[in-house]
Write a structure and sequence with these properties.
By secondary structure, the protein is an alpha/beta fold. It contains ten helices and eleven strands. The model has no long low-confidence stretch (mean pLDDT 97).
Amino acid sequence: MSLRVGLVGNGHWARVTHAAGLNREPSVELAGIWGRDPAKTRALADELATTGYDEVAELFDAVDAVAFSVPPQVQAELALRAARAGKHLLLEKPIAVSLPAAQTLADAVAEAGVASVVFFTGRFDAGQRRWLEQVTQRSDWCGAAGLWLGSAFAPGSPFDTPWRHDKGGLWDVGPHALAMLIGALGEVEEITARPGRGDLVHLILRHAGGVSSSCAVSIATPEAAAQVSLTVWGPDGRVELPERGDPTQALSVAARELAEAAGQPAPSHPCDVRLGLSVVRLLAEAEQQLSR
């Protein structure tokens, strides 16, 4: 029996990644959509041959799990309601834009005993997963350095949204960087943040075991300079993070693994809400340092 998933959101990412990814995964069923714009919701529901709901509570009542593709401050509020209603959660990153909101959501997931998966895209990408497996087979790495430089505000970009103007690259691409670095080198015990030009932030991380890493994050990079790169090096050389593939395929993997976790007596996943909370904790600490 497939997991019935409702989609919260009707914007660009919801349509091209979440809806498409859910529809291609046989272990789940896209059972309905809700969004703040009723007309867009109806249009997307018709396009996908599913049900468009006028009220989010009606969607929650009709499904087993909820996938979110809305701004993080909206997600934190609605995901809390969904968890308390006993629904499994496929969350976007960051899970919230404040530590109290993230902690409240994580507590609600634990109390409800529901499964959760946070869609840190690279952690579900086939090529980048193979790279992580290669990296984690060794423990003698000396360090890592990465660039997560996006162009969200380029003319015509579908990612030019108010919350990104408010929170910048630290909160938008920063979660991707942290999730990948944590996966490669282990938990982060200390973070140092320093500002650059515009929204550029330089992060220095000290991981459990003493290895360090650094990354620069921005979403206001000129299009010609935009890139994602990560190098891990050690005694025998270095390994480079491969380019990410189709995010729709990665979303399908995340949905399948949510369905698998939902069938466990004690649901867990390496990228569940607990990792989401750890990432928000680091982002909040970095943001506090930048404000001093």
